[in-house]
Amino acid sequence: MKDVNKKTGLARAKDIYDHRNKRARELKAEGKKIVGYFCCFPPVEIMTALDFLPIRLLGDMDEPITVADGYLPTVMCIFYRSTFDLGMKGRFNFIDGFIGSHACDAAERTSYIWSNYIKTPCNFFLDLPHVDKGEAVNYFKVQLNYLKETLEGLAGKKLGIEPLKEAISLHNKQRKLVRELYYLRKPDPPLINGSEVLQVIISIMMIPVEEGNELLQEVIDEVKTRRDIPDKKIGRLLIWGSLIDNIKFTDLIESSGLNIIVEDTATGTRPFWHDIEETEDPLVGVARHYLQEVKCPRTFAETDTSYREDLENRYSYLKDFAKYWKINGVFGNIIRNCDIHGYEVPAVKDYLESLGLPVLIIEQDYSTASLEPLRTRFQAFSETIG
Amino acid sequence: MFYAGLDIGSTITKVVIKNERKICTTVIKPTGAEHRRLANEIMEEALSKLNLSTANISYIVATGYGRINVPFADKQVTEITCHMRGINWLFPNVKTIIDIGGQDSKGIKVDNGKLVNFVMNDKCAAGTGRFLEVISDVLGVKLEDIGEISLQSTQPTNISSICTVFAEQETLLQLSKGTSVEDILAGIHKANASRIYSMVKKIKVEKDVAITGGGAKNIGLCRALEERIGFPVIVPPEPLITGALGAALIASEETKKIGEKELTEKQLNRRWEAVTFFDEKPTK
Fold it and tell me: pLDDT at position B36, please?
């Protein structure tokens, strides 16, 4: 019988978002092993197939960075600085495995420092090429094999083809459900606001895939029939760039005359927009997906000859997003010192402005303490739109 | 019909009351630490200058950093849009506005009366009024005199520091070396102008250029900026009120968008009190 006090849908997502590590700790007490990973490139399918709970390691915009200063250089991505700071303070002391990745320089270097100073029982660094063709995919498949072997050691069993295929199917289902959720933002006003979507996305990165799928279906059903939808606002915003993982930020944006409609970020569409191809050797599909289909500028897509053709090749998906969701403004979110997105700014701004879209670029300090001054910028930006 | 614009800046609060044709009165007062108490006091002062009561004002727009603490405002608009509207009314050919405030500075681009781009510096004192305040303190000169004094210089000192605190150190060093106050001030104005120009360059400086805010009252700073920009700039007769003026203009526009019934309802329901969050006692 269903527990009447158990929260469902959006209320449950908020609960999980507010207590991010609660489910992992519960499952650990029941004997499950937990694996924490950096960014959206370590394949969660491999982790799920070996019966681990994969949890995405994130920072905390509410927590002042105090310990990391003794280990990391000052001029580096504040997000990984914060994540490492939390690790040093024991926030993730329940994880059995740590998978760092070469998502970017900050993630790479922090991965090694993590292994040295935060005593997770099992550490692995996943090397990920920065290019996406031919030999790079083969190289990446070899790295995935090393990852598989390390995780098999931690799990105490071999990874079977069937469990892996099953895991891929479940995670693909999750991707499909996320896309279904996003389609509910097409109307004007959208049926669900940016903060609510963020809570759902963060939640599914902290619980087993089956529970995540159940949550997504609950939310979709709830939102389709809800009456208290967001207000109509002047701005229909696309967020591009560094990730946002705190609703205080999305709340601020959405109280400044803007509705967040779609996020091209690592806590938005990027992990969910394409399904893994079910190949005969499942790892082939996995390797191809993460290297070629996760749209992050950290992966350098082969460019064509002219500047305009190059822009089109790299960013045309943004044109499709803007058209589909009827976007009228773009917020380029740059966490201070994020090289991956910082260096893209001139090109992506140029491309988006050529489509007639106004672009607001903000370099921010990944801290809720320094959010309020941004309010004027967002409000003024909404005043340029309408 | 009367319309009011209220610009609560970090340093100075400004009110403009206008009718259909012209500005009727303005009030300029220091904001102090308690702007949420003072907003209605400053409004009342403006109203009494015209022998009006609160019921005579059709619409009130609040702007500036303190705009969220005005319970009797009918709408809040950012100071970026308001400065743009104010200058656009006074000088329709202006395309670039440089607003130099007490604690921030902004660049604003206008095209056909619409806000098209903006850039802000509210993190660093260099490039704001605060920079000049600190230096004038150190030199023992009144803030309102430093502009004129700087123009007397024949050999501006080169101030190499970007940071206000280090520029203060450099100023002391120069004084001890016997450098004249006017030369130091000229160098300081150049440094401040340089910071402002670097910021505004990001949105492309196009003619005509206007300067607003307290910084515009400093002739030394205006000249230093003109030198960097390469052509003369426009300074409005009272540069402090352009934000409040823009707010008042938006107020008059808003009344045309809503019906008379809604307008009267708004006027009746206005809360003419200071914002209090809890049982506070005034600090004075």
Answer: 65
